[in-house]
Design goal:
Largest interface: A-B, 52 and 57 residues
Number of domains of chain A: 2
Helix content of chain A: under 10%
Distance between the termini of chain B: 48 Å
Largest sheet of chain A: 11 strands, mixed
Strand content of chain B: over 45%
Number of domains of chain B: 2
Order of helices and strands of chain B: EEEEEEEEEEEEEEEEEEEEEE
Oligomer: heterodimer
Radius of gyration of chain B: 20 Å
Structural class of chain B: mainly beta
Largest sheet of chain B: 11 strands, mixed
Shape of chain A: globular
Mean pLDDT of chain B: 83
Number of strands of chain B: 22
Strand order of the largest sheet of chain A: 6-7-2-9-11-13-17-23-19-22-21
Strand order of the largest sheet of chain B: 6-7-2-9-11-13-15-21-17-20-19
Distance between the termini of chain A: 51 Å
Chain lengths: 286, 269
């Protein structure tokens, strides 16, 4: 019988008595075990590195600059105004098939999350701040869903980004930027099992900027409901074949409008892009 | 008795619609469109598409347009539900998804002394709702990246957010050129301005002569001002992150709750 190990780590005392909690560290059971993060009201940088631990810590916000709107005004002290601290209180559960790490909101605004380069990372984020952002780089696979103003993904082999949902509030009228993708159509290996690979970007209001080369091996299938799609690539788009229409509907649902396909590098993994109100830019990788 | 009367009071298929609303409270509901609402001296509510709104398919230097979503549009106002009661007129401006969103921006004229309620949700980048030259009570509920009020008398009640108490996407609320009526002067706990937002900034310009008490809840944001505010002892119950200050001895309440945004209170130029 498969051994199930369950660890629930309540760290209510983790931050007690410290100005800053030490970094939270944990190891995956195996390389293809996915890790799920739940983040609330914080921005985050997710970075792949050469180690084998997952390391989470709150980092100081950049030195405060006076907002442009405050020019000529003076700041007035407000009694009880929240002061930033770097205490995090993560909760973790691991059943051998998936690690789940939840970081409740606190008096910090930014997390640094280091993961092994081979990691399969899933993030559910709820960040309503006007300048909220999440960045992921140098990981194997990244999936980001939820509400956040800015998303920046680079140097990954697989990405799924779905931001701007309405049902839990709003935000996500910023930008999703994806660049330097290591394109491959090999299956994604999750818990040693092969899963079909499809790259996805779906936004409600956010603009999308996807950087690719003309010889990147991917089929980009895209639709803009109430907005536009632009490119500066040399390749021309074609009306999507029925197979691409089916794939788009299967993944994003609905009836796509004026669905088109950019077949790059002779084709490869499907990249599905749908935005309701955001403009889509498919631009040359610089 | 309320009744649905789109045939009597206007119907889709017109570029401008007018409804007689003299002496009535007016309630508007608008989805995924921006609106410029302006008070005027007439008796009708007038709704028309704003033909000056930026065109679709803007050119992007160095890029070619691959595809564009729904455009089309039909030049018409598409009122949805309409309810006309002795004291209340209600209209919903529908999003005409199947006919295109060529007019995503409405220009609405209302009799300037109308008690006006407006509910809306729009989250497109840069979308702005504006309200000006209105000299009666304003009740605003909704979310838009920018909301702007000028030349209003208030009282203004603004509850920023999405229906069902969800967090909204507002980034900035701007209020300027307040025209406080003489009757509003005097100590009174009923707010003259009552602004509630979750994550948006609030920027209010006030005349230096205004007699008012400011109550600003900025638990996680900052408060900036160049007004001659005199801080007051907090009233009980104590509320964390609340600043209370008087202008010219204190008077009508200006209440701002911006839990995660900044508040700017500045002298009216």
């Amino acid at each position: 019988m498969k051994k199930i190990i369950l660890i629930i780590l309540f760290t209510s005392s983790y931050g007690a008595g410290f100005a800053q909690t030490p970094p939270f560290r944990v190891r995956l059971y195996h390389e293809t075990e996915p890790v799920y993060f739940t983040l609330e009201q914080t921005s985050a940088d997710i970075e792949g590195y050469d180690g084998d631990e997952i390391i989470v810590e709150a980092v100081p916000s950049p030195p405060e600059s006076i907002p442009a709107a405050a020019a000529g005004l003076k700041q007035i002290a407000v009694p009880g105004n929240t002061k930033e601290d770097l205490n995090i209180r993560p909760r973790m559960q691991d059943d051998n098939a998936a690690m789940r790490i939840s970081i409740p909101p606190g008096n910090y605004r930014h997390l640094l999350i280091k993961v092994p380069r081979t990691a399969l990372v899933f993030v559910h984020i709820l960040n309503n701040y006007v300048d909220g952002n999440i960045k992921a780089t140098n990981v194997n696979s990244i999936q980001i869903e939820g509400i956040v103003q800015f998303v920046d993904v680079s140097n990954v082999t697989n990405f799924v980004i779905e931001v701007g949902e309405n049902w839990r509030g709003m935000r996500g009228n910023g930008k999703v930027t994806v660049s330097n993708i290591r394109w491959t159509d090999a299956p994604v290996i999750v818990n040693d099992a092969s899963k079909h690979r499809t790259c996805i970007i779906q936004t409600n209001n956010s603009d999308v900027v996807l950087s690719v080369a003309d010889d990147s091996k991917t089929n980009i299938v895209f639709s803009s409901m109430y907005s536009q799609t632009y490119t500066n690539l040399n390749t021309d788009a074609i009306n999507s074949p029925e197979s691409d229409v089916r794939e788009f509907k299967r993944i994003l649902g609905g009836t796509p409008l004026r669905l088109q396909t950019l077949k790059l590098g002779g084709g490869g993994v499907n990249t599905i892009i749908g935005s309701t109100y955001g403009n889509v830019f498919i631009k040359k990788q610089e | 008795m309320s009744f649905i009367c789109s045939l009597v009071f206007g119907q889709s298929g017109q570029t401008t619609v007018r409804y007689p609303v003299k002496g009535k409270q007016v309630s508007l509901q608008i989805d995924e469109a921006t609106v410029a609402i302006e008070g005027y001296t007439g008796d009708d509510l007038i709704i028309e598409p704003d033909v000056h709104y930026p065109a679709f398919n803007p050119e992007v230097p160095g890029f070619k347009l691959l595809t564009s979503g729904v455009t089309g549009g039909d030049n018409f106002v598409h009122p949805g539900d309409i309810s006309n009661e002795p004291d209340l007129f209600y209209v919903r401006l529908r999003s005409v998804y199947n006919a295109g969103l060529n007019y995503r921006h409405w220009h609405i004229l209302v009799p300037k002394n109308t008690h006006l309620k407006v509910a809306f949700v729009i989250s497109q980048t840069g979308a702005k709702m504006s309200f000006k030259n209105l000299s009666n009570e304003l009740e605003i509920a909704g979310t838009a990246p920018v909301m702007e009020f000028s030349n209003i008398t208030g009282p203004l009640t603004l509850s920023e957010g999405v229906r069902n108490h969800q967090i909204g996407g507002t980034e900035k609320i701007i209020i300027s050129h307040l025209q406080m009526p003489r009757k509003a002067i005097g100590k009174d706990d009923t707010p003259f301005l009552n602004i509630i937002t979750s994550y948006g900034d609030v920027d209010i310009s006030l005349p230096q002569s205004i007699i008012a008490t400011i109550q600003a809840d900025v638990l996680n944001g900052k408060l900036y001002s160049d007004l001659n505010l005199v801080q007051q002892r907090p009233a009980y119950p104590l509320v964390k992150g609340r600043y209370t200050g008087n202008l010219n001895g204190g008077g009508k309440m200006v209440a701002i709750n911006a839990a995660y945004g900044n508040v700017y209170l500045r002298k009216q130029q």
